[in-house]
Amino acid sequence: MTLEPATLPEDDSAIIARLGRATLARSERVLRRRQFRIALVFMAPAVILTSVVLLAPILFNIWLSFTRWKKFAGLDEFAGFANYTNLLTNPSFSEASTNTVIWVTASLVLPVGFGLLFALSLRGLPFENAFKNIIFLPRVIAPTSIGVIWFYVYAPKGVLNAGLERVTGSPVDIGWLYQDNTIMAAIVVTYLWQNVGLVMVLLLLGLAAIPTDPIEAARMDGATPRQVFWHIVLPLLLPTLLVVSMLSIIAGFGAFDLLWVMGLGYPGRRTLSLSVYMYFEGFSKGSWAYAAGVAVVLGAITLVVTWLQAWLQVRADGLKG
Amino acid sequence: MKTLLSRAILGAWLGALSAGAVLADDVILTHDKPFYSAFLQAVGDICGFKEQSYNPPEQFKAFVTSSIASGQTPEIFTWWSGATFRDEMVATGQIGQLDDLWAELIASGSFTAASAEPFTVDGHIYALPLGINKWVMLYNPTLFAKAGIEGEPKTWDELMAAAEKLKAAGITPFVSTNQDGWRGFIWFEEIMIRLSPTAYLGLFDGTTSYDDPIVREAFQIWSDMYAKGYFSDPRSNQEVLDFASGGVAMNLIGDWAIGLMAKAGMEVGTTLDAFVVPNIKPDLPAGMIYEASPLMISVEGAKNPAVMNAMRCWASDAGATVWSETSGLFMGNLNAPAPNAIVPKINKFAVDNGAALYTRWWEGVPADLQGDSVAAFASFMLNPTMEQADKVMAQLTTLHDAYWAENK
Fold first, then answer.
1. Which residue of chain A comes nearest to B177, CA vs CA?
2. Does A286 lie at the interface with B, CB-CB under 8 angstroms?
3. I need a surface site. Which of A204, B8, B238, B330 has the fewest CB within 10 A?
4. Per residue in B41-55, pLDDT tens?
5. What ipTM did this prediction achieve?
6. Which structural domains are found in chain B, ordered by start?
7. d(Cα B232, Cα B177) in Å, to the nearest integer?
């Protein structure tokens, strides 16, 4: 079948010759402007919302950190970097930073480790969905409620000590949430209980996305289950693990609710993490400018971690490809 | 029918909302004590204001500080007396003076001039009292009788002997708690004024250091009392329950707690009474800790007749009577009925003995040091050894000395 010459579409040069270059350029500009305006209308709610609710408060907070605002005065006094130099020399800030690093590390390693373990163990088991639902369930409870529940689990006359008394047969009177050497571990266990379900679900999704061909090929070549896991499953799961890890780290830096609620009777509560320290300095002591400085440092760390995640994600995708 | 029903539901919902809602023209009393809301509103109903609470206290502080910083000072609001009132709040220049109102109140005989002292800065008075409370030892007379204790302890030795008897009878003598995170200083301040009021007051201006031998002696006495098993578990956050349930015999607290204990089932005279803690050094004059809670107005509020009428009504015999009857608290108006039998008994003790009134530690120390210092006291209560006391003293000395080096 042949096409009639008249039905052939005009090529670009023919159109340009017929309409003229300037006319075409003008109509394209008009079209682009119209499209831009339409796009702007569609984007406006998100742009306005992000600017008013997110960007403006962030910029305001950064500006606050360069003022001397403390309690009722100093909002209009420029302090330069005084708040930043103060926090770097303040032992409470160092203590809160150290605790944050411990908290972030523990709240990353344990949920990801146990989440991976559960995801691998539960796949294909009878009642898999029932187990998954049970493990995920704590995630739907509000963190402050979880904090209150576990506060009483760890109370001197709480469930945990009562259980230990039954096991050991002797009185147990440990103040889990009152001692320097137990409080962080106790809260991390609660955090693990709350979050391992979510990590498990995300990793199960990652596992489901792994192609079966390379695994079957490896098995046919005589690879052991351990070799299949280390050399095929884990590398292919890496992008998901990376996302989960980064989400855990970011959540860890911002952790406040559990630490605040469960640390109620602990004398060192105000330095349990940088978020708690920031709240204490701002809301309790009224050192608003200083607290804004802590918030900026915390935000900067989270920004770097997010950037690192994006960079590693690109590399992991490259490896996968 | 459906439309009628939905309109009725909407109407009822809006009605319910507006019943408790605060309108633009209302005079608002802002505070951080939701447990007083009903009592404050009972006074508000006759005095023409609406109460509005913010809780936890951090939220209240944030609201007040940001309001003042932006020039939008609340019309009527509560705060704390002492250093934060004098050096920070009044210094903003946004608090209205109440000199004329106080002159009326003193002239009418409803308030003594002394009641205004905690709210006086540079000769001007900036607040009415929400409460004027003395810190006493609440005790359970039934438990005292059960342990064979006759009468209230008049000396420190008698107090310790009573504690020993209670312990022997299987009753914990004293409540110890860090509930709500601020109670750590209570026993420290009480022991300090029983040892040396001068040294105690020196803590407020840096003339007494926290490594002073008197401070160490106070910690030693406190530590010994823990070692003897006189205190309940400081990890409990059930202060009212521990005491009201009859598990502990004595509770050192402000007389504002009497109402709370009565509401928890204790009966004044039968299971609840109070005495002033005796001095450890017997030659010291009688004295007790007091706490005054200010009720302030903004400079703009002072120009508003509705606000001034609300304040005048608050301090009037009628306002004070409603406050006393609903809350069980004493605001200082001498014509109002006593909220309970204990308050007049304590006041009589103060008058008869010419008792000196010492500012509570919380109000006395610089506001910047309150949180860190009270946490240090709490850490001692959780580990009440002299080894820990030395650490706490060192920590407090560093903290306070650094402050006074900068702010003398």
1. A265
2. yes
3. B8
4. 999 999 999 999 998
5. 0.81
6. 26-132+291-340 (3.40.190.10), 134-289+360-407 (3.40.190.10)
7. 8
